[in-house]
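Field: sequence (string)
Field: structure_tokens (string)

Example rows 1 and 2, in order.
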Amino acid sequence: MGLFRFLSACQRFIVSLMASSVHVVRHGEVENPQKILYGRQPGWRLSQLGQEMAQVLGEWSKGIDLGALHVSPLQRAQESSAPIARVHKLEITTDERLIEAANVFEGKPFGVGDGALLKPSAWRHLWNPWKPSWGEPYIDQVDRMLAAVFAAHEASGGRDAICVSHQLPIWILRSAIEGRRMVHDPRKRQCSLASVTTVHFDNDDMITGISYSEPARHLLPTKAR
């Protein structure tokens, strides 16, 4: 019985080594001195610090046996993925399902403490935080992000995959997998710039869990660490 248990443990260990993951990466810092809620608008590029974060992501990715790189169509995500693509000599696959969440406040100043939500013109959009009423429904974000993650997992051919996306869709994906409610305080999302939320799969292509890391933590503002 002892030998049987030992061999079973060895088998489970070997299986765990064969299992793969999809690393869902948030893009680096964007050049945005006016604190605009850029959302899905085109043309928002990485700042100099964001470019440094992208280079860190490229270095971090050297430890991954990467089989697929799927990226949001938005410029900041494409720029964040470029060093990873160079390291692994992989083509970037653009996946529209990894795009930022839609938001009715897109294009407007939306910095912390600027009072944007106190303006009467905003109130009609704020009646239902569970949906939410001001943007893309959470359930729609879950559906498209899960589909994108499974597509990248399948495309990786049994190796790891990377998806580059945006804070809110990544957080909502994680919340769904971990069984949390969708409504939340945006200030408490664990999804910093250039962070990695990893979705783990077993050999039956079932999700087994989530882990989180911050390869560019040393580049984050002190208050964000």
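Row 2 begins here:
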Amino acid sequence: MVATSMMKMPMLKTLDITLMAMNAALYAGIGYVIYFIFPIVAPTVGGVRFWPVVVIPATFAVLFGPIVGGGGAAIGIFISDLLIHGDPLLSLTAGVTANLVCFGLIGYLSQKKLDWKKTFLSLGVGVAILATLAYLVITPETIVNYFGTTLEQALWNTYFVLAIFVVSYVIIIAVGLIRPKWRSFGAASVTGSIVGSAIVGIGVWGYTQFFALPAAIGGASNLPYYAGMILFAWTFATEIPFMVILVPPIAEACYKAFPRLRVKREE
């Protein structure tokens, strides 16, 4: 029995490394292509890209757990950052850490049986607090002064960000009602996204207090404190809808194609 277990351990470890490498390669490669098709970054603040490819590590995290999901995402974002802006320190400060924690949490929490009512009530309160904080910090006057837009445009930008918070939470509730088996994933995706987005906002803001952002993403330095909240809101708002809508059907398709994946997850 001992010999058999010892023989299996390296195979599992090798499999995890292989899956992590696949996750990283797909995340970096597809993300790199999408960025050059849609080179969109956070308004004026820069540094954070429009990044729907979070669906890839989120799916790996659900199927194979936190190590494969978080580790592959951290490696993948580091590679893509070097290809796009070439600053490894910025990537390690914000992108790598945020991806490791975000998708590690998604992989871990999505496998737990959570009390749906209590969990989503708590998340609802948390989302409401974050939306209120974003509204108080990212005021229309702040946007007008910093971004140079009109007051009307600033109001619409603020309302749009707040709407994303609300709509994302509604989508997660809907997914939980329609697909009860994915309730834990809904809670995990919100939790992981909130923590990961916060790390991005704080990390990029903190980095600019000492260094300038790479020229490829704007070259800004000494960003004001509310820039961190803008980056947090941008990251959360542009990533969470893709995860909660696309990951469940993709994972279900994988389960149908490879039934052993569902059995392994239940074990």
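free_text_note (row 2): The chain has one domain: 2-266.
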